[in-house]
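[Automated response] Your request has been received and processed.

Submitted sequence:
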Amino acid sequence: MSRQDKPAGMGRPKVTVRDVARASGLSVASVSRALSGARPVRPEIARRVAEAAEALGYRPDPVARALSVGSSSSIGLVVPDIVNPFFPALADAVERAVRSAGLSLLLMNAENDPDWEKRCISELITRRIDGLLISATHRTSSRQAIEAAAKILPVVQIDRFASPNVHRVVTDAVKTVKLCVDHMASQGCSVFAFVGATSSASPALARERAFARLTRSIDPSAPARVLRNDFSVDWGYTAAKLIVNRWPQVDAVVCANDLIALGVVQGSLDLGRNIPGELAVTGCDDTFFSGLSRPTVTSIAQPVVEMARTAMDLMARHGRDSRPVSIQLAPELHVRGSTDRQSLAEGFEGQDV
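Generated structure:
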C-alpha cells in the first residue's frame, strides 16, 4: 500500500502522557495521576490536564492504565468450546451484562483442553481483569486452576463447574431432565434411552444422573439404556443406529444437548423411523439449530440472560468471599416437532384419507 493509499490519520504520531505534560506545563507524574484516577489531584490540575488532553486528542492506553491502577475495568470469560452453539449465546448474554455494569469483556476459548484453560486464566489475570467468569472445561481437571484464581480475584463458575469451593450459577439439571421426561410421557412414550457425553463436563454427568433417577418410576430399565461419547452431531447420528440395534423398542430419547439431538433425529430418519410418531427426541440448551432442523427439535432453554446477570450480581455482592454460593436457575421447555405427537395426530385428523 502506497503512502497516499493510507487511511486518514494512519502514521500520525501517538500522543503520549509526556506530550500532555508539556502542553499543560505540569510534571509527567502529575499528569499520570490525573489521567489514571489512581490518586486524587487538585481541581485546577485536573482541569489543566483535561484541557490539554482534549486539545491534543490524547487517548489513554487501556493496558498502561491497568498497570498503573491495578485494574482494567474488564471481566474475563473463559468458555470450553466456542464452536458449540450454546457458548456464543452465553458469551453474548455475559457481554451485555458486563457492558451494563460499565465494564468490558475479554473472551477466551479453552478448546476443551484443561491445560490451555489454565493458560487462558493466567493470561487474563496478567491483564488485570476485575473478575473472572468461567465455564469449566473439565469437572475435575479444571478445579485447581479455578481455585487458584479465586484466591487472587472474584471468580464465578457459570453453566459448567469444577470446584465446590467457588461461586457458581448453573441451570437445575434435575428440572431440565424432568421437563423432557414428563413431556414425552405425556405424549404416550414409555421406553426411554439417554444419549450423553463422557463425564468430563459437569452438565453431562448431572443430566445422566437425573435421567436415571427420574425414569425409574416410568420405565425401570431405562437407567441401563445410556450411551456416551461426545457433544456432537456425528455422535448423535451413530447413537441412533446403536439404539435401533440394541433397543428397537425405545420410543423416547433424551439427549444431553442439541447437537446430539440433531444427530439422533437425522440418524433415525435415515433408518426409516418416523419422528415423532415412532420416536420422540429432546435436546438441551435450545440453540438456534433446534428451530432450523426438519423436524424441529424440542429442547430445554437455559436462561442464559438471567444466568449472566446473576453471575455478575454474585460477583459484585460476594467477590472473594470464602463461603461459596451456589445458585440453580430454572429451565424452560420449548416443544417442537420432534416430540409433538398431539399436533401430528391433529394434522392427520384434518386430512382426507
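Summary generated for your ticket: The first strand starts at residue 74 and ends at 79. DSSP finds 13 helices and twelve strands in the chain.
If you did not submit this request, please reply to this message.
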